[in-house]
Write a structure and sequence with these properties.
Elements lengths: L1 H15 L14 E7 L2 E7 L7 E3 L4 E3 L23 E3 L6 E8 L3 E9 L4 E9 L2 E8 L7 E9 L3 E9 L3
Antiparallel strand pairs: 1-2, 3-4, 5-6, 6-9, 7-8, 7-10, 10-11
């Protein structure tokens, strides 16, 4: 009887403390910190892994296991020729597609229509004015297939967008 009385609390304690194994992205570090050097922020941890290799320069010592710097970047924003509101329609298309976009600056725009073998079917350069623009691309001489429309804007930097176009009938 006394064994049963002793086993009941032990069994209850074992049952209530049962937990499934958890695997998570969190890592428990024994120590660490962060430091801003120039325009980069560096975070580090101590006790996460053993030292495997160290790289040194005259000012910096980096040991494997140091966490990557954060995404915070500084710089001068560049003016983009194309905004994110570019539209290519209709898709699928039978004879003509229209590229409609809003431009923040003047410049040139190259567009190429490429088939799935990599062959350039249409290659054209147009001049872009500031504001809303549209350009029609004639597909009547092309076979019914899938194509990649690659649009490249040229200003202070180059910006490229790609679209998958389906030609039917």
């Amino acid at each position: 009887m006394t064994r049963t009385i002793l086993l009941i609390p032990i069994a209850l304690a074992a049952i209530t403390n049962l937990q499934a194994q958890t695997i998570g992205p969190a890592t428990l570090n024994s120590a660490g910190g962060s430091k801003i050097i120039g325009t980069s922020e560096f975070d580090w941890s101590v006790g996460e892994m053993t030292m495997i290799s160290t790289f040194t320069t005259s000012n910096v010592i980096v040991t494997q296991g140091i966490l990557q710097p954060s995404d915070a970047m500084t710089g001068v924003p560049q003016t983009s020729l194309l905004t994110d509101n570019m539209q290519v329609f209709p898709n699928p298309a039978t004879s003509v597609i229209t590229i409609k976009y809003s431009s923040r600056a003047t410049g040139t725009l190259d567009f190429r229509l490429i088939d799935m073998t990599g062959k350039t079917m249409i290659n054209n350069t147009i001049y872009v004015k500031e504001g809303i623009n549209d350009q029609q691309v004639d597909l009547t001489g092309l076979a019914c297939a899938s194509y990649i429309l690659e649009i490249t804007a040229h200003t202070l930097h180059t910006e490229t967008k790609s679209y998958k176009i389906q030609k039917i009938k």
